[in-house]
Amino acid sequence: REYIGVEEVKHWIEENCAEGSHVIVDESMQPWLGRDWREDSLLMQQQWLLRMIRERQTHVFLMHSWTKIWSCTGLRLGSVVAPSTESLQRIKRKQVPWSVNSSALAFLSEVVKDEEYMERTWDLTPAWRQHIVKELADRFPLWTVHGKSFLSWLWVDTGEASIAEHATQLAKDAGVPVRWGEPGYKQPSIVRIAVRHPKHVKLLMDA
Known about the structure:
- By secondary structure, the protein is α+β, with helices and mostly antiparallel strands.
- The chain has helices spanning 6-16, 46-56, 66-69, 85-92, 102-111, 115-139, 161-173, 198-206; strands spanning 22-26, 59-65, 78-81, 144-146, 153-157, 179-180, 190-194.
- It is built from eight helices and seven strands.
């Protein structure tokens, strides 16, 4: 439920992963951190990644789903950063030649240039998220909200599984779905809410 900084991620891997492990770290939400998001990413930890291979035979792969930050889920854009050339070649031997289509590549070539979009994302997301936090506190004072202020979603603990399930159904019926925490996450009292424009949030709250 929480954003974990790079030093904590490294510590967790060192303490919990056996020698010879292959570890996948999903950094898809990392860009929301802000303009310096790479500084808190394993992308900048090349020496540590190599040391994990050399001393513990542990290969740490970084996964990024770019469809989230660029709001293009239908294109299925993503990337994997391997800790070594050998690790990369092992992945590429299994990769199908059509893993990214021409439309997605054309979109990617343009979207990486759109600095204004990223700046607006970094400016608006915390403000819109705080608006949701306030609305929830005013309407449901017993609910608790989890997650860092810069993230594009909120984990909301309603306190009871039945309440979370009912809230999920009401939101779905109103056309503004949220995700119930029971399927997949095994957090039955929680719902996950995306950060959206306040006018859309009102539809959710009124549901």
